[in-house]
Amino acid sequence: MSNYSIRDLEQLSGIKAHTLRIWEQRYNIITPKRTDTNIRLYDDQDLKLVLNISLLKDHGYKISEIAKMSFEEMSNEVIAISDQKLNYPDQIHALTISMIDLDEDRFEKVISTNILQFGFESTMAHIIYPFLSRIGTLWVTGSIGPAQEHFITNLVRQKIIVAIDGQVVKLGPASKKYLLYLPEGELHEISLLFANYIIRARHNKVVYLGQSLPFSELEFAYDIHKPDYIFTAITSAPANSDVQPYVDSLAARFSESTILLTGYQIVGQGIDTADNTLIINKIEDLIRIVES
Length: 292
Prior knowledge:
This protein has helices at residues 6-13, 17-27, 44-58, 63-66, 71-82, 88-101, 104-118, 120-141, 146-165, 190-201, 215-225, 240-253, 283-291; strands at residues 33-34, 40-41, 177-181, 205-208, 229-233, 258-262, 277-279.
């Protein structure tokens, strides 16, 4: 079981911390534990409660009505709503609950329904990617446990691999070559896999080197393939203080290629970039580059 701060609940549910405090005081709808220094602390059950409240409010329920419901009544109402067509935030809430409960059946229902209706890429871009971004910060700060993070990312990973396996790539005169890898020690592969799918879907060549690649091996592969682009994601490795020197080394060593960078330690971190380096802030940035 994980423990969450009120800011974690705000991040995962979209409900402002100020609003959560008002609900606690006015309706006694949620009762957090307290640390020795009187800081609010929430558990998995509290998070599910807040997610359910958020979904009900988004579907027209008043907070005064919700406050009178038992947890079971609330859950039944959410299930009834879930049988209808949900919007993207609702789907992200459902994925969050499936992560908390390690519920593969619920995950499959949400993802399979959306892939059938909207297609794989749209489901990834509008539901899974925002969801993973939402929990990414909590994983790095330790608010989400390894079991929960591993459970959900491995399910997503399986979906992407199956989608990649089903692609038929026809290269043409305008096709470019992309080399994809993660730095040594970096194991968070989802964004790399999805980039692989996006690039291949637009009929480009991908050289996929995967997780935790030493710099010397990157040089070896580069000298063989001479790619037009190098794509990598830096989430937890190298260490924060080493990220800028690492980015500088990429730009200098592979000056004839365009370096595409993303990840928790890149986006919004004030990283200085050379002329041949671009930061991918969101998945639409990568799509725009590949399509241009």
